[in-house]
């Protein structure tokens, strides 16, 4: 971990960790999906399950990322990724993150065609059954999320401190070649890193302290984003508890100039941040000021218990 | 702003700011030029007007870059870009930069063809007239600059301290994929960042203190630079006052190996730097030692009042 | 491997591979040197043995880098690093590189103090003896190289094609935070990547074709380079055979502005490049034109058979 991977207080950005996780997931699932006799393909990230940041990583530590395929359906792969931080001076190791990702293999010849996934062998029958259950659940959740996706973030003139409008932020990025896979669309990890960056700015603007990513709710990748697109990543505070803040982040893509397609919602997710003192202790979060009845609903209400 | 965006004293490099400005300008002008019914195109930077760095930006601050189209001629677009630095911990905001950029839309099918720009609507008639005047002025200045452009920086053997030869520096860069637009030529912002890097090294070698960019004179982009080219960016001190240094910077391009074209001058500009103490106060600059009559002329003499 | 890691023909730069090798070496040797009861330290690269690039790596392939400690003396560690490229679409794997690196552990409290290395266990007695022999040899070679190190590359006015002066090149780099270890000096891998970049530009200028790194001769790191330094990396053609080119590369460091130290030679090495056709076949190399008696000696003559 290098200085550029971390914030001013030396804590590695959640987005840097998410990017590494996705890189490991993309490698293992692309390798698996090409291990059969089917046509060549590249695995595209479809969804990341809710994940917690269990302990912070610091500049100078070494990240150990390991990945394993835990379930395959006909057209998708579930990957479990574990991240450990290692202080190579003291030898101390800590689990920083466990994440579950879903990938879909797209044909190298036709980017719109999903190819078949070679099945894996399960050590025990229950593993397959449990995997199938997780598969059904995520499928349902993805469908629901897509329907909620019409929302946009409008600028607010002269917002009061601690209102939604006060901290909402957005960032525009032009998708370059090194952001992309061999098929010419953006790596999921690149998108997640930018999303975490926006969420971090929203959180810091709201509470004006050192902040770190505590968890990320399920992230659904609805649509691919092609090289040359301009993406707008927008974030706003949706809920505060005494100890944490929930920030909703959208990614909207404007396709490159010679494509007929209109702007579309590509990804959306909820990030949870905590505020830290200089000594690394959790600080209370200023409450979100809700004006009138137009207040956004906390994500946790929308979807039952988090 | 990350550690790598800044010098050792924590001040963000002028080149990093110029690169962001150009990115915003390229996005808004490409978007505008594709809003009509004309053929798909990408906006290429033709010129940046003289711009001042009003206050320094620091690591950890958030840069807010906003861009607006202020004039369109048949084949060019004027963009006004404002940069604010925001300390998200204190909420303090400062204007750091205002810049005016000119773009020319190039056809996606034929990179040598300039396409027509859809006109914008002006709120008041005077805006259009003032814009036209700025357009004529920059056109004239670009023409003049091109004629002055034969100069090269020759190496000096064993130069004395504070002479031109002592601090002159050059840098070679191999143009990679991420430096380029979808049309395969270098983003203007990438070139400006490298130019600022060379100018900063010249200034630091001359005065051996912490230095920061104070302003950049008009930058003209005479020729496109293609992916795979090797570019040589050369800088030399041309003038010192008590409080500042003026450095001339050239960009020369050697086309990729299998192209018939010879080395050509692609860009040239003058950068002004100031020297700072550790506490951030302006220091006096050692005077430039001029040997004989071969001394370069200060740019301000060449062109009347700066 | 991403587009930015490769040249226009899609071959990954030798420098990118060297940087990964060094990263692996630095992690394993820092971890080992802190495994005993001694004081905390960071391993600094002292030397890389001659290494061949056995087969090219391409964009989209996954690099597998593995490292092992093969010998320890009282104050140094020998690390063997192997690099394999894996095409995750076809499953094909190839050994691309085997390298031997020597590290020296520097105290975290006092960067000028070399700490003691915990001994490793050898499976067989001969391994230790062979390691000791390699240790003595590299020690001798390092000493010799240091003495040859006064040379500088002087600029040539109007050089003829295929002379040394025609293709010689140099590159300036300002050392930023992300280039550095926890002790605040440059990672060896960052330096090697820049050296390969300069050597590649010299080779391309000489033969004006697609070129790739074939091998790197022993690289000795004589002195540390601190954060904030400006480094000048210079390269010149020293020898051509029918099929390859040998390029000498120097790294000179100018310490940060407020340090009393003068410019010093930090690293030097010889790189060998081959020229490739578009189909990837080796092309004959234009012979180096030697003017008068001041011609540089081929490195292979200086030091016996290559």
From TrEMBL, chains A, B, C:
This is palmitoyl-CoA hydrolase. GO terms for biological process: acyl-CoA metabolic process; fatty acid catabolic process. It comes from Anser brachyrhynchus (Pink-footed goose). SUPFAM superfamilies: Thioesterase/thiol ester dehydrase-isomerase (SSF54637). It is found in: Cytoplasm. Keywords: Cytoplasm, Hydrolase, Lipid metabolism, Repeat, Serine esterase. PANTHER family: ACYL COENZYME A THIOESTER HYDROLASE (PTHR11049), CYTOSOLIC ACYL COENZYME A THIOESTER HYDROLASE (PTHR11049:SF24). GO terms for molecular function: carboxylic ester hydrolase activity; long-chain fatty acyl-CoA hydrolase activity. Its EC number is 3.1.2.2. The keyword Repeat applies. The active site is at 7, 196. One of its GO terms (cellular component) is cytosol. Residues 1-109, 165-279 form the HotDog ACOT-type domain. Signal peptide: none annotated.
């Amino acid at each position: 971990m290098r200085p550029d991977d971390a914030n001013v207080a030396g804590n590695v950005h959640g987005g840097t960790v998410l990017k590494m996780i996705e890189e490991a997931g993309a490698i293992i699932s692309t390798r698996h999906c090409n291990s059969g006799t089917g046509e060549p393909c590249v695995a595209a990230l479809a969804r990341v399950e809710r994940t917690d940041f269990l302990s912070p990583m610091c500049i100078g530590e070494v990240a150990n990322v390991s990945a394993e395929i835990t379930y395959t359906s006909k057209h998708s792969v579930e990957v479990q990724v574990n991240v450990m931080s290692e202080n190579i001076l003291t030898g101390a190791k800590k689990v920083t993150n466990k994440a579950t990702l879903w990938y879909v293999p797209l044909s190298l010849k036709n980017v719109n065609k999903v190819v078949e996934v070679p099945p894996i062998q399960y050590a025990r029958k229950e593993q397959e059954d449990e995997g199938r259950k997780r598969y059904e659940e995520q499928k349902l959740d993805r469908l629901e999320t897509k329907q909620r996706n019409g929302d946009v973030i409008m600028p607010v003139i002269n917002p009061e401190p601690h209102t939604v409008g006060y901290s909402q932020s957005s960032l525009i990025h032009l998708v370059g070649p090194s952001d992309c896979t061999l098929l010419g669309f953006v790596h999921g990890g690149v998108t997640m890193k930018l999303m975490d960056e926006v969420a971090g700015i929203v959180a810091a603007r709201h509470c004006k302290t050192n902040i770190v990513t505590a968890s990320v709710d399920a992230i659904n990748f609805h649509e691919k984003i092609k090289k040359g697109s301009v993406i707008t990543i927008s974030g706003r505070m949706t809920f505060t508890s005494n100890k944490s803040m929930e920030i909703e982040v959208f990614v909207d893509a404007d396709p490159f100039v010679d494509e007929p397609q209109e702007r579309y919602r590509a990804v959306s997710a909820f990030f949870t941040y905590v505020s830290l003192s200089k000594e690394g202790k959790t600080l209370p979060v200023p409450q979100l000021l809700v004006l009138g009845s137009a207040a956004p609903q906390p994500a946790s209400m929308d979807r039952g218990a988090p």
